[in-house]
Write a structure and sequence with these properties.
The complex is a heterodimer of chains A (439) and B (364). Chain A is built from 15 helices and twelve strands. Chain A has helices at residues 3-10, 40-52, 61-67, 76-84, 132-142, 174-185, 195-201, 219-227, 262-292, 299-308, 316-335, 342-359, 365-378, 384-404, 406-422; strands at residues 17-24, 27-34, 70-71, 88-92, 97-101, 148-155, 161-168, 214-216, 231-235, 241-244, 424-425, 428-429. In chain A, the strands form three sheets. Chain A has a five-stranded antiparallel sheet, with helices on both faces. Chain B has 364 residues and is mainly α. Chain B contains 14 helices and no strands. Chains A and B meet through α15 of A and α6 and α12 of B.
Chain lengths: 439, 364
């Protein structure tokens, strides 16, 4: 049994396997590939044309044949891998020469389109998609620099997947690059197809609260990160770039700001900072001022709050927790709903439930205002990953405030600050502005 | 990477926590008038000691005080490090006890004091464990950005009821220098003793210019003056010296119509408590350094809880506020002694070291 017979045998159960013989002058050629990955009519046309004209131009057919692609060794596994990678494998029957040709591929991802998670006001609007090569192409067009290095790694034994590492050679912190390369190269056999597997590979603990990476859909954000000396990873089939490390400033600054007059961009950044502080403090402050330290408030205000809570039968912290729970449920429910049902949930959750819960004297009016503000403020930060940590940290302050009042809020803030200050990603401290530097 | 800003803010924050409570009383007790003179003298003394300390450290490139001392004479190293250890320990205990008392009086009267003391130890413990010195230095920038705004706002608001006539007389003659004979003046020096030794402990990766420390020390001068002068300008000297915490009392009398809060001294207190926890974590880290580099390299995950438990037990032995004030007075002599001898000893061995190097270079 020849090697090609073995390969055909291996693929016999594949409905999309094509094994076609081509007769050109006196020579027989066989082309094989998967039609799910290769556009066969166009590819065959592209393949046959130079061969047919070779005699006319006075060239040897075999020379033209080898120049069409990369000659590969006649080995069962090599050929199978090439075919699975979407290459067209052609065999010259007489000489047994095997050539792997880059074909016209089947379109395997959506066209470049608008981002789905990020919005850009006044900046470029085409977003990354699922194709890794496409993403690198977009990055290159945004960052036309000889300095841009792209290293591609292949991971996995059974399921193979590609991960590309991009960085600017002269700007990246050498320690970051060394750590990252070391981690990526340590074990090529385990697969990396999602963020969890990547985090595991990069050695991030499971109990990390603050995100270690930013995921950007817009190439200009990624290009800015590269210029600032960060590293970028692309995982095949994930429609975003992974920027390492994430820094404190990523909560407040976005590339989009640079398209606005400086004063406005700084005002917007301060607004985001205010948003972060409000999200963290407000629910805790309500609980602290209502239940532990009412004396801190002006008497008139304390009185009106107390009056609005007159019929509420449980402590402020339970009241806040109940409503926060409903809000979290709405936030979670709305993500996966089709856009035709989404507004209904918003209406039921926002108007009906909000109004009813106050009318039924289950929570006070003020709390509704506070929690609405909190939820809105939460969305002001840059990057979806960053909203998670704020959503979680506000509960820390809430519980501490219920026990220790305003002192609890201060302690909670201090704990959060200490966590942020002590956090490191691949040896790079989290609490830095713009340019990541090692210690 | 230069860390001037981080070192400066750390230096300022570490001291800021100590200034606004007992310091004004000590200054007022040291003299009846011309209060700026003892304040200035305290600062000057501090600057001189910093100068000697930094000079001594500068003879040894990229080494911290423990490495320097250990290399010379083991016995003397032990002598000084043991002192430093007691110095830090006593400072932490008194600060924790003092602040727990203040918080208990002002904000949380129903909470048992041991809960507050535990809080004042656990959070600094977490800060130290989470970040070590790199994290602590970065934290200083973050919390100064967060808490300095309310603190400065309250300090500015505290000028609401001042009567500038109380500022006078500014100078009456050389009898103004009588305060140097008053023990209260030496008590007041505790306010600049807090983060003083810290400079020597910073590891080699935190490169800073001496300028950073001097600027930090200078930036504290207005805080010292305000803490003493605002109560005097508001109540007059005779009334102000009757109060337990004059400055906190002044802040309690501020009335701001447009603010939704009645007691804005809470903001000042919370800011100061944050700085105090920061100060404790810095001291805790120094204790950790001494034990790990000087005695035995025990994992911080075990060492910090052990230190915290010991400190907590010691705190529990202080029954009331008067005892802690008394302890502060007793410990002051010891603190002054450590403050003076450590830099001077460092300067001497540094100078000898440099001389020896010079001789070796000449012989080559």
């Amino acid at each position: 049994m020849t090697v090609m017979d073995e390969v055909t045998d291996h693929f016999s159960a594949y409905p999309d396997f094509v094994n076609q013989k081509l007769q050109i002058a006196a020579e027989t050629l066989t082309v094989t590939g998967l039609k799910s990955l290769i556009n066969f009519p166009q590819t065959i046309y592209m393949f046959r044309d130079p061969l047919l004209t070779s005699a006319m131009n006075g060239l040897e057919l075999i020379d033209v044949f080898t120049s069409l692609g990369q000659p590969i060794s006649v080995d069962r596994n090599t050929i199978i891998t090439e075919i699975l990678d979407g290459m067209l494998v052609a065999v010259h029957e007489a000489s047994g020469l095997v050539v792997s040709i880059y074909p016209v591929p089947q379109p395997n991802s959506r066209a470049i389109s608008l981002p789905t998670m990020e919005n850009s006001i006044g900046g470029a609007n085409s977003a990354f998609n699922e194709s890794l090569d496409n993403n690198i192409m977009m990055l290159r067009s945004h960052l036309n620099s000889a300095d841009l290095q792209v290293k591609t790694y292949e991971f996995g034994n059974q399921v193979k997947n590609r991960v590309s590492l991009c960085f600017l050679d002269k700007t990246i912190d050498p320690m970051l690059l060394q750590n990252l390369k070391h981690k990526l190269e340590s074990d090529p056999t385990t697969e990396i197809t999602n963020m969890l597997e990547l985090s595991h590979r990069l050695g991030f603990t499971k109990f990390t609260w603050v995100t270690h990476y930013m995921a950007f859909e817009l190439p200009q954000n990624t290009a800015r990160a590269l210029k600032n000396g960060k590293a970028v990873l692309f995982i095949d089939r994930l429609p975003f770039s992974i920027v390492l490390p994430s820094l404190f400033s990523d909560l407040f600054m976005s590339e989009d700001d640079l398209n606005h007059p400086p004063i406005y961009s700084w005002l917007m950044r301060s607004l985001r900072f205010l948003g972060v502080m409000l999200t963290l403090i407000l629910p805790g402050l309500y609980v602290a001022l209502v239940s532990v330290n009412p004396d801190v408030l002006r008497f008139e205000l304390a009185h009106s709050i107390a009056r609005s809570r007159l019929d509420v039968p449980y402590p402020a912290v339970i009241e806040a927790l109940l409503l926060l729970c409903v809000l979290e449920l709405i936030l979670e429910a709305i993500i996966r709903l089709p856009s035709s049902i989404g507004p209904t949930i918003t209406m039921v959750g926002g108007i009906v439930l909000g109004q009813a819960v106050v009318d039924a004297k289950l929570v006070s009016n003020l709390l509704i205002i506070i929690l609405a503000t909190t939820t809105i403020a939460n969305a002001a930060v840059v990057g979806y990953q960053n909203t998670y940590v704020l959503r979680l940290f506000k509960y820390l302050l809430l519980f501490l405030a219920a026990i220790l009042g305003v002192l609890g809020i201060m302690s909670g803030l201090l704990i959060i600050c200490a966590y942020i200050a002590g956090n490191r990603t691949l040896g790079i401290p989290y609490l830095q502005l713009i340019r990541p530097k090692g210690e | 990477m230069s860390k001037n800003l981080q070192v400066s803010t750390t230096y300022i924050l570490v001291h800021l926590a100590q200034i606004f409570f007992i310091y004004p009383i000590d200054i007022m007790e040291s003299t009846d008038q011309v209060h700026w003179l003892p304040v200035l003298f305290g600062c000057l003394f501090n600057l001189i000691m910093i100068f000697i300390y930094l000079k001594g450290l500068s003879y040894f490139k990229d080494q911290n005080i423990i490495e320097i001392l250990m290399k010379k004479s083991k016995f003397l190293a032990w002598f000084f490090l043991l002192h430093a250890l007691i110095y830090m320990g006593s400072m932490i205990i008194l600060t924790v006890r003092g602040f727990a008392e203040v918080i208990s009086i002002t904000v949380l009267s129903n909470t048992p004091i041991w809960v507050l003391m535990l809080l004042f130890l656990i959070i600094p413990g977490y800060i130290t464990l989470q970040g070590m010195i790199g994290g602590i230095l970065r934290l200083s920038v973050l919390i100064s950005a967060l808490f300095v705004v309310p603190v400065v706002f309250v300090i500015l608001a505290s000028f609401q009821n001042v009567d500038w006539h109380y500022l006078l007389p500014l100078w009456t003659g050389f009898s103004d220098f009588k305060f140097v004979t008053n023990p209260s003046f030496y008590m007041s020096l505790f306010a600049c003793s807090g983060g003083f030794l810290m400079i020597g402990f910073l590891p080699s990766f935190t490169k800073f210019k001496p300028k950073a420390i001097y600027w930090g020390a200078l930036a504290l001068l207005p805080a010292y003056l305000i803490s003493v002068y605002v109560p005097i300008l508001t109540f007059g000297e005779q009334t102000a010296r009757q109060l337990q915490f004059p400055y906190i009392f002044v802040v309690d009398t501020i009335e701001i119509n447009w603010l939704m809060f009645e007691r804005i001294n809470v903001f000042l207190l919370l800011g100061l408590v944050a700085f105090c926890m920061f100060f404790i974590s810095v001291s805790l880290w120094q204790i950790l350094c001494i034990i790990q580099q000087g005695v035995r390299n025990i994992n911080s995950n075990y060492l910090i809880p052990i230190i915290l438990i010991l400190l907590f037990i010691s705190c529990l032995f202080i029954p009331d506020w008067d005892t802690s004030v008394q302890l502060l007075q007793w410990s002051m002599a010891f603190r002054l002694y450590v403050m003076v001898t450590t830099p001077v000893y460092l300067l001497i061995i540094g100078w000898l070291h440099a001389k020896k190097l010079k001789v070796e270079l000449n012989n080559l």
